[in-house]
Specification:
By secondary structure, the chain is mainly beta. The protein folds into three domains: about 10-115, Immunoglobulin-like (Sandwich), CATH 2.60.40.3500; about 120-230 and about 340-465, no CATH class; about 235-340, Jelly Rolls (Sandwich). Helices cover about 5% and strands about 45% of the residues. The chain has helices at about 175-180, 315-320, 375, 410-420; strands spanning about 10-20, 25-30, 40, 45-55, 55, 60-65, 70-80, 85-95, 100-105, 110-115, 120-130, 130-140, 145-150, 160-165, 185, 200-205, 205-210, 215-220, 225-230, 230-245, 250-255, 260, 270, 285-290, 295-300, 310-315, 330-340, 350, 355-360, 360, 380-390, 395-400, 425-430, 435-440, 440-445, 455-465. The strands form seven sheets. Strands 11-12-13-32-31-33-29-30 form an eight-stranded antiparallel sheet, with helices on one face. Strands 5-1-2-10-9 form a five-stranded mixed sheet, with no helix packed on it. A five-stranded antiparallel sheet has the order 3-4-8-7-6, with no helix packed on it. The longest helix is centred in the C-terminal third of the chain and has 10 residues, at about 410-420. The two termini are about 45 Å apart.
């Protein structure tokens, strides 16, 4: 509240102007005499109220609708309280703002009310030794934002992080945390409707799901080190056959595009028994079943995978290459991760993408990692993972698709957020309705579906001190 000086006499409001800029709201009042005034800001009602006892509003009474991201109405009305009556001006706002300020100029005959449009408040607290939770709310020009985050010190004894899989297709993150006895967690990598992960997952040193394309992943080592890098599958299939023209053996080589994932145009994919009993492919390609380095079967799609072998599945040019193989032909196939985290001793890993930060600089690699527009464009609920310069792990969710709570973030905005939280390297995880953060069994974000979405996997945090 601010107060000025009151002088008796006919006091008239000569001018009433309001301005909005990209970052401010300004109310400019000019009077014929200095006056006393009360200025209050109501967070509950999102209103700035200016009361001018004994002032005549002249021709300024009424309501004016404002086309602005924050200020939407200015109302000038009679002040009914007090013996002298007066003037009451109300600025109605779309969301909370910082406390406005009032000051007088020109000997008190001009009153200025100024308010900044952006507002941020929040807190951070430890929920276990080495594990902090924080959140903040920020009202921006585009709309409100609500962010939850955890800081995990993996060098702290008794703290560990690992991905888990839902044992029946899909479960909500708080159900997975309860099932596995974790104190906290977030959702993980993308997944198909049947719960199959669409990206890299390693649990206890075992490859659960191979990488998709050359997308970003986070690896966790036994010493608490976290590494963010692009991980992919590289390899080749080599057909060795006798050439009548040369009178010797020749090699015909085709690169492998992936393992145990959806086959796309012109790709050659390897399916091993870890994929399931069959390849699950359509009939628009060609497949070769291999056992003991010999072709044992051919077909168009959904081939049975030999228990001690694999299936090569090709589409387009890759399918035509496979059609040159006949039952009994000798072939060799070799594939591996690059970088080969399994050989380097990674304990756990979780995929996602695209990358957000690289060495402290924003580097959003949506196009390079072949993400579609539903991921790369526009604002959405987001989940992200980052690593600080000291090696601390950051897990972050941003509410979205809720205009009165949080509008979500673009990937570029998410990258900047991760940098503000201290990350030097960061990556995006599955988002949208999947975005969920759980601490001690409580879902702390507001899922955009209205209720938490069942997911196929999650990244959980355990604390021995819980």
């Amino acid at each position: 509240m601010a107060q000025g000086i009151s002088l008796d006499g006919g006091i008239i409001l000569e001018e009433c102007q309001y301005y909005t800029t990209d970052d401010k709201i300004i109310l400019d009042l000019k009077l014929n005499h200095p006056v006393s005034y009360d200025m209050t800001y109501s967070e509950a009602d999102n209103q700035i109220v200016v009361e001018l006892p004994g002032v005549d509003g002249g021709n300024f009474y009424g309501d004016v609708e404002i086309n602005d991201s924050v200020l939407y109405r200015v109302s000038v009305d009679h002040l009914l309280d007090g013996e002298k009556g007066g003037l009451r001006i109300v600025l109605s706002l779309r969301h909370k703002i910082p406390e406005p300020v009032a000051f007088r100029v020109r000997g008190g005959t001009r009153l200025l009310i100024e308010a900044k449009k952006e507002f941020r408040q929040g807190f951070e607290t430890f929920i276990a030794p080495g594990l902090a939770y924080g959140h903040w709310r920020k009202d921006t020009l585009q709309g409100p934002l609500f962010v939850n985050y955890m800081r995990v010190n993996l060098q702290h004894p008794g703290l560990r992080v690992a991905p888990v899989m839902a044992d029946q297709g899909r479960k909500m993150v708080h159900e997975l945390a309860a099932q596995y006895g974790a104190i906290a967690g977030v959702n993980g990598v993308y997944f198909a409707a049947n719960g199959r992960p669409l990206g890299f997952v390693v649990i206890d040193g075992k490859l659960i799901s191979p990488p998709y394309f050359n997308r970003t992943a986070a690896g966790f080592w036994a010493d608490g080190t976290v590494r963010i890098d692009n991980v992919t599958v590289v390899g080749e299939v080599k057909r060795i056959a006798y050439d009548l023209n040369s009178g010797g053996f020749v090699e015909d080589i085709r690169p492998i595009d992936g393992i145990n994932r959806i086959r796309y145009a012109d790709e050659l994919i390897v399916y091993t028994p870890e994929n399931g009993p069959t390849t699950g492919t359509n009939n628009y390609g060609w497949e070769v079943s291999v056992e003991g380095n010999r072709v044992v079967g051919v077909g168009q799609g959904n081939s049975a995978i030999p228990e001690n072998g694999y299936v090569l599945s090709g589409h387009g040019s890759a399918g035509q290459w496979l059609r040159n193989l006949e039952i009994g032909d000798y072939i060799e196939a070799d594939w591996r991760l690059t970088p080969d985290w399994l050989q380097e001793g990674v304990v756990h890993a979780i995929g996602g993408g695209p990358r957000l930060l690289r060495n402290g600089e924003i580097d959003v690699t949506g196009q390079e990692e072949r993400f579609q527009a539903d991921i790369t464009r526009g604002r959405a609920p987001r989940t992200a993972l980052g690593v600080t310069a000291s090696g601390e792990l950051l897990l972050v969710t941003v509410n979205g698709r809720q205009s009165n709570i949080s509008i979500g973030m673009t990937l570029e905005e998410l990258a900047e957020l991760m940098r503000q939280l201290g990350a030097v390297d960061a990556m995006n995880l599955d988002g949208g309705g999947s975005s969920t953060m759980v601490v001690r069994g409580i879902v702390l974000n507001a899922p955009s579906d209205g209720t938490p979405r069942p997911v196929s996997n999650a990244l959980l945090v355990w604390s021995d001190a819980e």
